[in-house]
Amino acid sequence: MADEHNMRRVTAIRNGTVIDHIPSGQSLKVLELLNIARDTSVPVSLVMNVPSKKMGSKDIVKVEDRELTQTELDRLALVAPDSSIAIIRAYTVAEKLEVNLGKEVRNVVQCTFSNCITQNLREPLPHRLRVTNTDPLTLRCHYCQRPQDLDELIHNLL
Amino acid sequence: MKGLITMDDLTNEDILSILDDASRLLPVARGETYLPLLEGKILGNLFFEPSTRTRMSFETAMKRLGGDVVNLGDVKTSSVVKGETLFDTIQMVDGYTDIIAMRHPRQGAARYAQDAARVPILNGGDGAGHHPTQTMLDLFTILQSHDTLEGLSVILAGDLRYGRTVHSLSHALVRFGCKLILASPELLRMPTEIIEDLREHGADVTETEDLLGNINDADVVYMTRIQKERFADEDEYIKVAGAYKLHARDVANVKAEMIIMHPLPRVDEIHPSVDSTRHARYFEQAFNGVVARMALLCRLLNIEVPAEIHGGEA
Questions:
Q1: pLDDT of residue B89 exceeding 80
Q2: How many angstroms separate the CA atoms of B140 and B147, rounded?
Q3: Yes or no, beta carbons of A145 and B128 under 8 Å apart
């Protein structure tokens, strides 16, 4: 019931993407990760800190008229690895997608170590962070091998 | 294996087999035999940071094997100061040479260069990261003295935080089941992520500030230089660094076969009185840089070192 009530806090969308079960307070980071803050031509609804049976409390994001790709959604794993994603077509769930981090995060964020070779943004090779563990999430730079601080990493989006 | 960026690029079998090649190449390294295995090959020496031993020993190794060397020269007068990216520099040198030895102030630069290059890269030090060719000569020196790399008790002492030689060496020693005692001032402890890596490999690692209290049980004592500029004030430096200096009297009761190593240059962490003890190995260690790098150059260029070399010793 709580979930249904939460979904009704904002109107159902006709077409687009719903990202549910985002950890409470992380939805702004989700928007940032998906470059949605800078691309606001489509309507975006955001619900924060609503009750959740599964998580205690959670955030929800609805993006209208845009179907996010798997690659875009995989970026979410950095802040909301357990979020659930639904692609909505004509008011119904057409597809359910899962966040999948894979073995490497490529060209999403820049290594946080100040003396890493990738700090020179003119260097053309891709930024690569290896996933060394998924629970808890740990990442290491492919080049300098330094472990990454996830809170700091979110400020290093490319 | 393409290049050598970290010790993870080599299996234990690779390491032992390359060190075996190195031992056969000793007479060539000493100049007693001329063996032009690398004739027609060119090494690109790309040292973006000052280096004496590493650069010279790579050059000597190449020339003793009949190969040639081109140097980046002084970074201050190269295209690097004009803002050239490492990627572009590597593209150029990659076209000129068959193999590249590189040192760079930024961590991860060697891996980056390997991703950008077609020829093998030998990492001669990347920031505070890795220095695997130094590790190979260190292992060679240990093997010469102890006939094994397995299960030794090794003290790594001094600056374990910024000293890249001890980062690479500790990884390698742990893979051979060595027990590590990491003796350093609090400020210069081994980085946490390296300790975690070592323990993940099941390593027996002890961290301590006490060097001399552990020395009598050690098979190897590996000293490194503590740099004054790491400390906020000179008094603190003098107080701390004093505990990581070895004098001949400190080794009076150590194991007979214990060896003292140092990547050099030393300042005053090993007193000259130690030089004449049976334990000192740092000058042989520096010489071994040539022979270990000869063996690595051959391996990465896919040139087989002959099973018997005239005038060689096993």
A1: yes
A2: 10
A3: no
